[in-house]
Amino acid sequence: MGKNFSILRRILIHIKLNLFCEIHQSRAVMKRTYFRSMITLLVSTALLFSVLNIAKGQKPGEKHEGKICRVTSYSMNKICKEWDGQWQGIGVASDGNCYFATSTHSGGHGAGLHKYDPVKKEHQVIAEDMTIVCGEEFSGSQQGKIHSPIVELDGWLYFTTHLSNYWPEGIKVYPGAHVLGYEMATGEFRDFGIVKPRYSIYSAIQVDPERKVLYVMVSPFHPPLIEKDGVHLYSVDISTGELKDLGQLTFGETGGTPWFYVDNKGNCWFTLWKREWQYDYDRGNLYCYSPDAGRIITYEDALPKEAKLIDGTPVTGKHMYNTRCWNYTEALPGRERCLFAMGAWGGGDERLWIFDPSKDIASGEAFEPIASIGSTFHETARGGDRLYFVQYEDLEVQRTISPELARDEDPDIVGYNSNLHLRSISLKEGDDPNVITDHGKIVDQDGRAARMINALAADDQGRVYMTGDWYIKSDREASMYLQLFTHPGERLYYLMKRGMFFAVAETGEE
Q1: Is 438 exposed, middle or buried (0-12, 13-18, 19+ CB in 10 A)?
Q2: Phi and psi dihedrals of 452, rounded to 5?
Q3: Torsions phi, psi of 53, nearest 5?
Q4: Nearest CA to 493 among 89, 39, 109?
Q5: 112-138: pLDDT as tens digits
Q6: Number of CB atoms found within 10 A of residue 461's CB
């Protein structure tokens, strides 16, 4: 029964994933999605109720088995009920504090920005609603997400906003995403404004510290804009605020990239994200905006062509080959090289790689695998000489199930079985990077376990910071979620059996 339930659960999650990928389409498609989602819900409910007897696992407050990664958590929903998740939007700054975001899918509330002082162990809300910071409180739309990295230059943090009201009416009235700066010393915001009207930023931002330039990628989500245009790369001059369109990447299709790598020569490297969209003209391309050439250079089919699982088993299949992309990217000190990983959503490869742009790209010499770590996603971050990442305990589950979708399953039906572990490897010269340290199942001070972590940061003191969704002990901790998929535009909310938390693990004390 347990094995059959696991298979059923994965099938249902994949069905939900297919539905999710349709939300950016026309009203007719949305209606069809609503009908299909209702059928899926009825079928899933009937099947799941037949296996109630296997709903086990540690509820919040109960004793957890196995090795535990004990974290200190802070409930975000006690501050704002509508914060319902976070993707990226976290970073450790030069002042030693962790800055992080909280996002919504609300019809009336935007994203929040926060600071955590690890020495004083104090949490502070910097801004509760980015819609107000952007001067759009009465626009009828929301700046509901900070779905980008948080990058730093000269005492300022930079990040972007993102569309969150995904129903057709919300997409239609969205004014466009902003690039924002926050000065840590003064607490002042700087709004560079909307980069391209009605376009979101999905989702990368990175800085060229020598040229004082920010790079962002703007994406259309409104069907008429998608049909006649596509994704564009933009630069933002920090000194003057000048916006410059550097080139178009997709044609008649939307898309984006979660990460940029700006090397020590100022070249901006990236791939197109393939989790939700695939392209006939991109089967693993690597892109580079060269400020010297003044254009985007495309290296066609350049990414590593042979994917492997952690145990060396080859990954085959046309779909996996065609979806190759970077799902994690981070520059190494000096910016001559960067780390990257592809994972289940980027072609299936389970290795950590180094990209060296000074070497030949066409031959593959520029790409060097340095460790086998298993499938990873956004929840990956370097802190000092260690790389930290969050995975399901079972790597087969990690390959097939998205925590983002599994977090919405009713734990009183499917069980309190989420088993997310914090793991790390050493990047120190001379150490074996294939030695994985399992810090244990992520559980907080009150026995709550994590259900999804999609934002991770780390410092050189062994502190690992995370935002995500957790099991809850009461409705006071629950996220109030807008039913945007099943009742688009109707402003109907319900309390989830999960809540949004910020947490910190002190791995240096282990």
Answers
A1: middle
A2: -155, 135
A3: -70, -10
A4: 109
A5: 999 999 999 999 999 999 999 999 999
A6: 15
